[in-house]
Design a protein that fits this description.
about 400 residues, alpha/beta, Rossmann fold, six-stranded parallel sheet, 15 helices, binds adenosine-5'-diphosphate, binds magnesium ion
């Protein structure tokens, strides 16, 4: 994987640089409720502005499906972005944008209107690519989270203008390369979450890549069922038992050790600290019980596995972590991984919406080597797919 970065961009003084960012932040009552994505833009935008570029931020917001509207306008993000950047941010809509860009002073930053106000954005339409390209001299893609989509502002532009990876994109690509591209071995993967069906391609890819595959969460139930365990009322995709068996077979052939829980935390109801809570061997789950977390002994053994590994990639919680005490296994293993990372014996990379929430809940997100907030793009990368927005930078 080779790509140019801001180190290669040369003199940008007075040049218009189109920067694809991810401004798709959650909002409530007109306020940004989580500014993680805005903070991720700071390094690239301020560096380019400091070097005298006219910085033009391109981004989508929501799903306007080609229809301009106030609801999906990026106008409302100019101020929150300015606040995070610590400098003014102008707003430019799609009428009179050419003149507005021409009037911008070097060293200033402007956010352009929602790219998805053009229906052709999501179709990677040459006319829309040309429309965007006409505004700038150079293109920087800083939005890994949008790189799994071949859209005009993510893929098309990279082919139309000299293209570079922004600082956040660069950091993400380097971290992911370290975790699965050319990792230090042994490598462990933790895959958890609710269902096997949403992560089939991830599992299939990982068995050929990692030395240890740790399966937890609801999806472990499907694997246990495939091995003849009666999982009672647990979340389980019985129709995927054959697929689960196939994945286990492939792991075997590839020399990947699969770790399934052997003790589990069960309950008759899906509620916090239920009266029916107990821990048992996987073979002792009653017909009216649900498996909601990995048991303590299994977690301890998994911690020992991590101690023998140099690299960890993690997607998906080990249990129904939103409800106590079914967060226990995820929290315990996350703390072990964080401690090993701090000691310098483990490179740890994690991603996924609920995974990031779970690691924050465990208070260890800052101790991991890298946390990806990219969602869909992170999963596609875990599936071994080439992301069009990244490929176009090469
Ligand atoms: P991510 O967003 O990190 O990719 P997922 O969305 O795949 O993760 O999975 C997270 C969900 O899986 C959580 O809502 C969690 O409650 C659920 N989950 C984990 N273990 C179980 C289980 N044993 N039974 C039911 N749901 C579970
Ligand atoms: Mg999720």
């Amino acid at each position: 994987m080779s790509f140019k970065t801001l180190d290669d961009i040369g003199d940008v003084q007075g040049k218009a640089v189109l920067v694809r960012e991810d401004l798709n932040v959650p909002m409530a009552d007109g306020r940004v409720t989580d500014d993680t994505r805005l903070r991720a833009t700071v390094a690239t935008l301020n560096e380019l502005a400091d070097k005298g570029a006219k910085v033009l931020v391109l981004a989508h917001f929501g799903r306007p499906k080609g229809q301009p509207s106030e609801e999906f306008s990026l106008r409302k993000l100019a101020d929150p972005l300015a606040h995070v950047l610590g400098r003014p941010v102008a707003y430019i809509d799609w009428e009179g944008d050419k003149a507005a860009v021409a009037a911008l002073a070097p060293g200033s930053i402007a956010v352009l209107e929602n790219t998805r106000f053009f229906g052709g954005e999501e179709k990677n339409d040459p006319a829309v690519i040309a429309r965007f390209a006409g505004l700038g001299d150079l293109y920087v893609n800083d939005a890994f989270s949008a790189a799994h989509r071949a859209h005009a502002s993510t893929e098309g532009l990279a082919r139309a203008l000299p293209a570079y990876a922004g600082r956040a994109m660069e950091a993400e690509l380097k971290a992911l390369e370290k975790a699965l591209g050319a990792p230090e071995r042994p490598v462990a993967a933790v895959v958890g979450g609710a269902k096997v069906s949403t992560k089939l391609d991830v599992l299939k890819h990982l068995v050929s890549k990692v030395d240890h595959l740790i399966i937890g969460g609801g999806m472990a139930n499907t694997f246990l069922a495939a091995r003849g365990v009666d999982v009672g009322k647990s979340l389980c995709e019985h129709d995927l038992k054959a697929t689960a068996e196939e994945i286990l077979d492939n792991a075997d052939k590839a020399g990947c050790t699969v770790h399934l829980p052997y003790d589990v935390v069960v309950s008759k109801e899906f509620a916090a600290n239920p009266a029916s809570l107990r821990t048992c061997n996987v073979h002792e789950v009653a017909a009216d019980e649900m498996i909601l977390d990995v048991g303590r002994q299994a977690v301890e053994a998994l911690g020992d596995v991590l101690k023998t590994c140099r690299t960890l990639v993690w997607n998906g919680p080990l249990g129904a972590f939103e409800i106590e005490p079914f967060d226990a296994a995820t929290v315990a293993l996350a703390r072990t991984a964080a401690a090993l990372t701090k000691e310098g014996s483990l490179i740890s990379v994690a991603g996924g919406g609920d995974t990031v929430a779970a690691l924050n809940h465990a208070g260890v997100a800052a101790d991991f080597s890298y946390i990806s907030t990219a969602g869909g793009a992170f999963l596609e990368w875990m599936e071994g797919k080439e992301l069009p927005g990244v490929a176009a930078l090469g």
